[in-house]
## 1
Amino acid sequence: MDNDYDDIPGTYIFDTKRCKEGFHLNRFCKSLDNADNREQFRANPTAYLNQYPMSPEQRQLVEERDWLGMLQVGGNIYYTFKLAVFDGLTMQHVGGLMSDMSVDDFRAMMLDGGRKLEGNQSKKQNQTGR
Amino acid sequence: MARIVAGVGCSHIPSIGAAADKGMEQDPYYQPLFDGYGPAREWIKRIAPDVVILIYNDHASAFSVELINTFVLGVGDQFKPHDEGYGPRNVPDVVGHGELAEHILESLILNEFDMALANEMSVDHGLTVPMTVMFDKPEAWPCKVIPLCVNVIKYPQPTGNRCFNLGKALRKAVESYPEELNVAVFGTGGMGHQLQGERAGLINEEFDQYFLNHLQNSPEELTKLTHLDYLRDAGSEGIELIMWLMMRGAMHSPSEVYRFYHVPMSNTAAGLICFEETV
């Protein structure tokens, strides 16, 4: 089914379908808000990840820290960000990595008022020019 | 009886809490923000609410993907700060008002807003950052807090109109509580921001100003905003603004006493608006 929000460029709405798809991936990320879990994951990432039956693709995206890819297979940013925090990254790092910008460029864009809506509102509009 | 005397709309960006916790308020990046909070802090001291009903969202902290509730009311007597990956924030525990919360919960359900109930839950930056914004760094928070948690992470979020009407029911609940209490309602989150995807970093000041300009006198216009309007124009995380509409719904005739808007704070537009009830 087509959703109206699928027309928003560069945006992965965490709807019921994605929420179900990303269940184990998000549960893994969420577990990192416990200090003992963080220690276990640091000590043995493979064994730790084995506790969460993600799809092979999801597992690979987690291992590669593909922040954009994780969203495309059901990850939610508030969950995946817990993994980023574990890695010592800020939201600017992750924002830059998802939008193919260096963290410095991303920070500069924010200081300049952020990413503009113009050109980022509608895929259809971008294609047809109206 | 208990009365709603004030309403606050307030962003809850985690880096605001981190900056306060590290004593970085005078850092050039943060100084404009904390300077902007000064007048609101003075004002809330004068209002001195006995209880704050704090409308916020949990960011995969107390709640996770196993069970997703649309509306949750914290009826417990104490709520501890959550460990969001850095260890819990070093802020006071939140002390609830169990009795008023029980009353509100029952009143809301009998008025057809079917709340979930939390006897115990941790609270994350969604709740603790607005407390820092308004009350700075006291040894203990100067008022009791009733957490009202709204799902804004998973689509579909409740509509803005639903939140506005829940706010009205919240007012009715508070006003039917016999004890003399001054209650403030905080609606938190926003303003415009998108954390995720290639569009991360989106800020739409025009939307934010439109929202602020209509909140006092024409909130009904804001209740017509659709999910798509928020997700597309305020950013996928900007839909948190529906929680400001719940605050507005709880006020009858608000008078704006203070407003502050600042871009950027982290990846977000930080907004603050303070209302006093005039009836």
## 2
Amino acid sequence: MALWEQAHHPAAGGVVLFSGEVRNNHQGKEVSHLSYEAAEQMANKMIAALLDEAKQRWELQVAIAVHRLGKVSVMETAVVVITAAAHRAEAYAANQYIIDRIKHHVPLWKCEHFVDGERAWGGHCSCKQKSTGNIEP
Amino acid sequence: MITLEFFAGLKDYFPPVMEVRETPEDINSLRRYLIDQQSFAKTLLEQCRFAVDDTFVHEDYPLRQGDLVLVIPPSSGG
């Protein structure tokens, strides 16, 4: 709610909020919860630079991204991206760009904890297969 | 000597922080050194990126004494 209060701007006619939330299943397995870790200092720097880049590219009035670390339960929010622009097209495009970059480039990792006690790092991103890989610096 | 920091699934194979006494020439040498140390982590290490001073570096980046190197598995945020 506090983030949403920061999302409004007199010059913004379109505000988009994306909330990445924890599903209760993955590839047929029941998920108990997720836990996240990050190379925190580097991740914070990258997200700040990413928001600056998106603001310039889409002339955003507002760009906010917050990613939780530690345990996140089913139906809870793991990541929020808010973008506000003069028109909705820019707000949507910028929002998708930011969340895609966070998922694939920022040093952040999820660990899936399943109800059966197993755990697995990574995965869960349906667009991962389309990615060009992670070797590039 | 350089210091390495490991994250996520890599911590199943390496401690969170590890020192390497003899500084490898570059990132490529470091990657090969790590694969030699933990062959079970080969696939994951081949997918990793490396960062120095919180910036991703290329395979031919020359390592220096005292560098802190982050070993970064494929990202999976969101």
